[in-house]
Design a protein that fits this description.
The protein has about 900 residues and is mainly alpha-helical. The longest helix is centred in the middle third of the chain and has 19 residues, at about 410-425.
Length: about 900
């Protein structure tokens, strides 16, 4: 896979053509991004897959249906973005089985967002397939969907080569000063070297007169193209304008539109004689700058006429959205009929999952709407669509339009909420809290359910703000929320969650636990088809972890990731994956946690939303590699402060405490845990408390440990889960003596062995073994320390494993290191695929879960077998005993 990056005219398209020429025996498929199609969902992907769709008949029905809906060939609900991408991956993979496939994507910066996401998804997952994908991106531009793919920057020609090329294209004498000026302006750009001299008269080439001294290189090259088009007969120039305004390159549509404007076939020859355009089975411009030059040079009236002709020539039944788009740009003034047609196109786009397309239709509809009130409503709808598409900056622009319209009070309240959501999506910090509270207050008199959701959004923002936020107003609002009657028959999950959090805010943790448990039970019973409930599953996971309920955390996070993937919701999936990763982290499944967080981070980068700052530091802290962890922790701390994310800051300090406890640097751990535990935000996050107790006891600060234990017991007793009571018992043991201490240690090991918290069980065994050694009970100590070491070593928790190894050595025992054929040699992706294969899933089923092709699954398995010293799939169960497969919601 390769992404070619460079300025316009530097030779990216020529390189793509060279790749095509060097691919004998391969099927070559071209895709060209077109600026005017950027808002039409899946337009680019359709270019790539259109010729292969016949082969999709044998694909699984969900994949086949997803492509049909995405391409407007069938009506249904919004297609699953991930299913569309997976279907495209498998469609290309199957085509490549017949003959190797070369996919060339030119002007990728102009791909529509849905296609860019899908093509980037496919490119990242190609490994064993006989497929090459090469993208060409014009710089400067930002295509986050292609981040992470290998880049090749295409630079200009060296000066000597540039001078030779310039001399070859200029007939006659070329003044040295003129040559130097052209060479300096062109910076080695081949297209500029070819085209700039063509716009100059011989006298200018000889004497240096008339060279433009302003504008960008792209603008000047476009001006050269525009002057060559201006020299054409009028009908030939208008024919080129039709081609520039119609990005499909459909010659049948081109000539139907030309007929509308009374342009005959003889207009093509002069245009083709310029060498700038070809009218063959498809229309093809010599360079994208020719298209933009032709379109920009045309007068507004000419553009309107051309778009009008294209609208009339477009079949209203076969392609109503493209017809509406052309009508929109054929309309110079306000027009309610066209605006209404665009609004209907927006509805169709949303059904196809094209949130960006829907927003573009609504934005243009708002611009054409005569009635100011209706214009404001359409702008609000467009802003909502932009937020759904994870594009908060574009949403802000539409909100500014809505703000200028005469909105009613309800619409003003919705505008407030959308602005607050934009702020939260960009920072996940404290700035959004007062904005969301004000919006919720404004909505309360109009839409009680929307108001409740907004209050919940405000409380969530307050949770993220944590110690960096001002909770006074939040607590007052929480008390007001509790004063309103609850929906009790049946229990509404969202209302119950809101009331539970409000109770914690206004009355404290212990009072809040019963209503929060009630809310989590309601989420567990909720219909999976409820989009409103699914939207808040991630928060339910967060509450489950705060209540020390590892069983519910496991179940809800598994469902949350699965539903977010099925819905293709790129705003919810990253945070759902982060909470799912947390389940694996507590279970000691670091590889699975890392895999999920890598995918979460990749999605966040592609959608340019606020990062989940705390996750990488926590994973690295549990692993215990100080050299790798400390720089990441410090960078995350600065980012959290800048964004106003107090919760992340507390979790980062907790990560430092875990790291230093594992390294037996207890004074450093105490300092970090004290800061993390001093500010608990909403009164829920408490994982820093046991870290502080352990570090304080080991540092000789028993008084601090005792006070902290009282705080911990308030929470663990209210929770009552085995995880909570096991942590409490382990912490009590550190401050106890004699038989009482041993009883607490034994209780901790037993309770922590009953759930999905193996990492904490190992820590309890480590503490118990350390205590036994200090009691001179070496044989008993070896049993606990060996068990702890084996777990830490298997998890990859280097810090705690080292601590256990040193304690074992003090008892006279040598810790046994893992052998080279251990499953630990597997990469996170290999380990996940191996566990799923062990559990009986086929390659196709594994590929569908992990969004890779079956061929890539097989490729990974063939790397797994020698690492595990096995030769077949059936031996996986013996090679990977007892490892639960929960990364994608599967259970043994």
């Amino acid at each position: 896979m390769q992404v070619l990056r460079g300025e316009a005219g530097v030779g990216k398209t020529a390189l793509l053509e060279y790749v095509a020429e060097q691919a004998p025996g391969c099927r070559v498929v071209w895709v060209v991004g077109v600026q005017s199609e950027m808002e039409l969902a899946y337009a680019g992907l359709h270019q790539l897959c259109a010729g292969l769709l016949d082969a999709s008949a044998g694909r699984p029905r969900p994949q086949r249906d997803a492509l049909q809906v995405a391409f407007g060939l069938a009506e249904s609900g919004a297609p699953n973005h991930f299913m569309v991408a997976l279907a495209a991956l498998n469609l290309l993979s199957e085509a490549a089985e017949v003959s190797p496939l070369v996919c060339l994507i030119d002007d990728a910066q102009w791909l529509d967002k849905a296609s860019a996401l899908a093509l980037g998804f496919v490119a990242r997952r190609l490994l064993a397939e006989r497929i090459a994908m090469v993208f060409a991106v014009r710089e400067p531009s930002d295509v986050p969907e292609l981040y992470g793919l290998p880049d090749l920057v295409v630079t200009g020609l060296p000066l000597a080569d540039a001078r030779l090329l310039l001399a070859a294209v200029v007939a006659g004498r070329l003044d040295e000063r003129v040559a130097d000026r052209i060479l300096a302006d062109a910076h080695g750009n081949p297209l500029a070297l070819l085209e700039l001299p063509r716009g100059m008269r011989p006298a200018q080439l000889a004497g240096g007169f008339g060279l433009p001294g302003y504008g960008t290189l792209t603008t000047r090259v476009e001006q050269v193209f525009a002057r060559r088009v201006e020299s054409l007969p009028p009908d030939s120039g208008r024919l080129m304008l039709i081609a520039a305004a119609e990005p499909l390159g459909d010659v049948t549509l081109l000539w139907r539109a030309a007929e509308q404007l009374r342009i005959g076939p003889d207009a093509a020859a002069p245009a083709e004689a310029t060498g700038l355009v070809e009218f063959d089975t498809r229309v093809r411009f010599r360079h994208p700058l020719v298209r933009s030059a032709v379109y920009r040079a045309a007068s507004p009236d000419d553009r309107c006429q051309v778009h009008g002709a294209l609208a009339d020539a477009t079949d209203a039944d076969a392609d109503p959205d493209r017809r509406a788009w052309h009508r929109a740009y054929a309309t110079p003034g306000l027009d309610e009929a066209v605006a209404a047609e665009l609004q209907r196109s927006a509805v169709r786009a949303q059904r196809r999952g094209g949130a960006a397309a829907a927003a573009a239709f609504l934005q243009r509809a708002a611009e054409l709407t005569p009635d100011p009130a209706r214009r404001g409503e359409r702008a609000l709808a467009g802003a909502e669509a932009k937020l759904d598409a994870a594009d908060p900056d574009a949403a802000s622009t539409l909100l500014a339009t809505a703000d200028l319209c005469p909105l009613d009070r309800y619409q003003r309240a919705r505008l407030q909420r959308l602005r607050a959501q934009v702020v939260f999506s960009l920072s996940r910090g404290s700035d959004a809290v007062p904005l969301l509270l004000d919006a919720a207050d404004s909505l309360a008199g109009f839409d009680s359910r929307l108001a409740r959701e907004t209050y919940l959004e405000a409380f969530t923002a307050a949770a993220f703000a944590g110690r960096l936020g001002d909770l006074h107003h939040v607590r007052e609002t929480a008390a007001g929320v509790l004063a309103a009657p609850a929906e009790v028959s049946p229990v509404d999950p969202i209302d119950a969650l809101l009331r539970g959090i409000a109770t914690v805010l206004s009355r404290g943790y212990q009072a809040g636990v019963p209503p929060l448990k009630l809310a989590l039970e309601a989420f567990g019973r909720a219909d999976e088809d409820s989009a409103d409930v699914n939207r808040w599953l991630w928060l339910a996971c967060r509450i489950a972890s705060d209540l020390w309920d590892d069983q519910l955390w496991d179940e809800l996070s598994s469902r949350g990731v699965r539903l977010a993937r099925e819905a293709g919701d790129l705003s919810l999936l990253p945070i759902a994956e982060s909470y799912r990763a947390g389940v694996h982290l507590q279970a000691g499944e670091f590889a699975a946690a890392s895999t999920l967080m890598a995918e979460s981070t990749a999605i966040i980068q592609r959608t340019a939303t606020a990062p989940l700052i705390y996750s990488p530091p926590m994973i690295l802290a549990y692993r215990g590699d100080e050299a790798e962890a400390v720089p990441v922790i410090e960078a995350a701390r600065k980012d959290a402060i800048a964004r106003g994310q107090g919760l992340a800051l507390s979790m980062i300090d907790c990560a430092r405490a875990v790291l230093f406890n594992g390294l037996a640097r207890y004074e450093d751990a105490t300092a970090a845990a004290e800061v993390a535990a001093a500010h608990d935000g909403l009164g829920l996050y408490a994982l820093a408390l046991p870290e502080l107790i352990e570090a304080a006891v080991r540092s000789g600060r028993d008084q601090l440990a005792s006070v902290t234990l009282e705080r911990l017991v308030e929470r663990t007793q209210a929770s009552g889960t085995n995880w909570a009571l096991g942590i409490e018992a382990s912490s009590r043991a550190l401050l106890a003596a004699g038989p009482a201490a041993e009883a607490f240690y034994q209780e901790a090991v037993a309770r922590l062995g009953r759930g999905h918290v193996a990492f904490h069980r190992a820590r309890a065994q480590l503490l118990y073994g350390e205590w036994l050694r200090r009691q001179n009970r070496r044989v008993d100590a070896r049993q606990q320390l060996s068990a702890a070491y084996e777990l830490f070593d298997r998890f990859g928790a280097e810090g705690f494993a080292g601590r256990a190894r040193r304690e074992l050595s003090a008892t006279g025992e040598t810790a046994r290191r893992r052998t080279t054929d251990s499953p630990s040699l597997l990469t996170p992706r290999e380990a996940l695929i191996a566990r799923l294969a062990r559990d009986g899933l086929t390659n196709s089923e594994i590929g569908a879960q992990l969004f890779i092709s079956p061929r890539t699954v097989e490729y990974h398995l063939h790397k797994v077998y020698p690492k595990l010293d096995i030769s077949s799939r059936k031996e996986l169960r013996h090679a990977l005993p007892g490892i639960p497969s929960r990364a994608t919601g599967q259970h043994d």
